[in-house]
Amino acid sequence: MFFTKSHHDAHETMTILGRLFFRHQVGLPLIKSRLFPLVVGPTGVGKSHLVEKTAADLQAHYFKITRGDWLPQGVKSGRPTVYQIIDQALTHERVLLHIDELDKFQINFAAGDWGAGVGSDLWNLLDGKHPFDGYLRETPYPEGQQPALEALSKAVQRSLWIVGSGTWQDIFANNRRGATMGFQGSTVNSIVDVQTIARSGVIPVELLHRFSGDLLFLDYPSPEETALLLTTSGLADLAKKSGVIITPEQIDWTQGGMRALETLATRLAVAYYRRTEIEPLNALMVEKRGRGLRPISEPRRK
Prior knowledge:
alpha/beta
């Protein structure tokens, strides 16, 4: 995964927040620190990869959950998802809980369906309010070994660090200078900040307040970063061997982020194979046409 400047900046800040959390260095005793980062960026920019890398750097167990996973995961295991999260926090000394696709949760407590229940679970998780009473009732422990409620709460609070991420593309679509679509160009052209997001109403204020006030923005590579990526990845060299010219301006990052490079790499590989294998073989077969042979690209005549 190629890291842009925005990746490096976000990774640095996220790692510092994680170290502060796991070392329990929360600053002033009378002021609550908000150490849960919220990562915002377009599809395919590498949000999940960055969060997982941060977990590895902090030597924390990585556990990812999305809105789509929430109910099926609970049904499949026979245990509510929040209980599974508590399991993870009690099993590992450090856990990075990655709540991805927060923009898709669409929490509506008046809905009266499972979505309202998921929203309630999510809010309580972010507030550190865990259903320990129910957890103790439904978790089998050897006789006499059930942990005390206070000890259980303290263990989870100390080990469970939460990182959220989502796209919220409309924020960027409506707040980028000189652009009609979001996530084009560099973040230096963006006029997005926390106040802009709060005013937009796209991310509920109640959700914003549960994360660090300094949101972490990931953006697609700049033209200079794209040029470097084409060189270091070998794509520029492969293009040259394939008889193709590629420039940073030809890379449309809005078509799935890094997947755009995967598509380009596949096309170049096909072009290179055709140039080095198929075309020489066809030329050889053409030379032998008089002996009843035909090029492999030429259909057989009936």
